[in-house]
Design a protein that fits this description.
about 350 residues; TIM Barrel; 3 domains; eight-stranded mixed β-sheet; three-stranded antiparallel β-sheet
């Protein structure tokens, strides 16, 4: 469905400027922005993906990954086509890069915000996630769905590259409960060459969310030869610790994909090195992803007891958090561990 976009301004000569993401595209009449799904038509900016779902599924919330947000629950996950990055290692490139890779009409399966909420409730999901592609580029759809979800008691989640503007974050803030932000690198050169973006806007978003009441976890996909130096991993860990050492950091193993299909998978020892760096820099919660057998348990930073034990075999986790505190020693544990609780960061 084509609908007028949010967060743009009209300019001279029939151009518009989009203020949704940090590209802040200036778009001439009939042209699309960098995301490939927002078009200027006669001085009005339109989104082409409102209600056009390209992927919808029920996922464990841990898959986002979120380990400190409603553990053991499922989340109804949706996406449209498009993205405002061009990452050569994208795992979901067939849908995120669809407007650039294919000469066809932008589209998907029409599903209204009300139907999304109904689907989530019917399937017993405890939240709705905007994920798989970048939710910022289908912002209007996510915004309306999130508002309606809150009316029905469903929290909402963004899985994002963090390139949204301050204005976009302010607009979604009342309806957003949690997010996982990809911090892909700590080098601007990496963002410019690999993602066709910049580092600073991502860091700014992380800092803003870190000061808000939105629960946040961070992810870094470690790609051999691109962002895996000990110096860069230490810079990332120090940045996180400076905001709050209780922000969970997910270090994810890369597997060959898209334009990096000739790159080797990340050696597991490199991820273990990153884990040690994170812990040495004072981070309380560091997790390894895409590594079989790695623990997804949440451990109390004070007494080292397991407060969220995720058993193998798909059974519900055993949670030892009482009103946001470790049931063994009473220390506050950052996250949301029961429905209706507000996010609270580690002290």
């Amino acid at each position: 469905m084509i609908r007028e976009a949010m967060l743009y301004e009209r300019q001279e000569g029939g151009r518009v400027r989009c203020h949704l993401c940090s590209h802040r595209c200036r778009i001439s009449d009939s042209r699309f922005g960098f995301c490939g799904v927002r078009q200027n038509r006669g001085g009005t900016l339109y989104t082409h993906v409102y209600g056009e779902v390209i992927a919808a599924d029920v996922d464990p919330v841990e898959k986002k990954p979120l380990y400190h947000f409603l553990p053991g629950t499922t989340t109804y996950s949706i996406a449209t086509v498009g993205c405002n990055f061009r990452c050569g290692f994208c795992q979901n490139w067939t849908i995120s890069q669809a407007p650039q890779e294919k000469e066809e009409t932008i589209g998907g399966t029409p599903i209204s915000p009300g139907e999304i909420v109904d689907n989530a409730l019917d399937r017993g999901c405890r939240s709705i996630s905007f994920t798989y592609t970048e939710p910022t580029i289908f912002f209007e759809y996510a915004h309306d769905t999130a508002r309606l979800a809150h009316e029905h008691g469903l929290p909402t989640i963004f899985v994002s590259n963090g390139y949204m503007t301050e204005e976009a974050l302010a607009a979604i803030h009342p309806w957003l409960d949690a997010c996982n932000i990809d911090l892909k690198s700590f080098r601007d050169r990496f963002y410019r060459t690999t993602c066709k973006a910049r580092l600073k806007p991502v860091l700014d978003t992380i800092e803003r969310i870190g000061k808000s009441d939105i629960w946040m976890e961070l992810t870094t996909l470690v790609v051999p030869g691109l962002n895996d130096s000990p110096e860069e991993l230490r810079d990332i860990a120090r940045f996180i610790a400076a905001i709050n050492p209780g922000i969970p950091w997910h270090i994810i193993r890369f597997f060959p994909a898209y334009h990096t299909d000739q790159t080797e998978a990340t050696p597991v020892e490199k991820l273990r090195e990153a884990y040690r760096i994170g812990v040495s820099e004072g981070l309380y919660h560091v997790y390894l992803g895409n590594v079989p057998g790695e623990s997804a348990d949440v451990v109390c930073p004070r007494c080292s007891r397991i407060v969220v034990e995720r058993r193998r075999g798909g059974t519900a986790p055993e949670i030892h958090v009482d009103r946001g505190r470790c049931a063994f020693c009473g220390r506050h544990i950052g996250g949301v561990f029961s429905p209706g609780a507000r996010p609270a960061a580690d002290p």
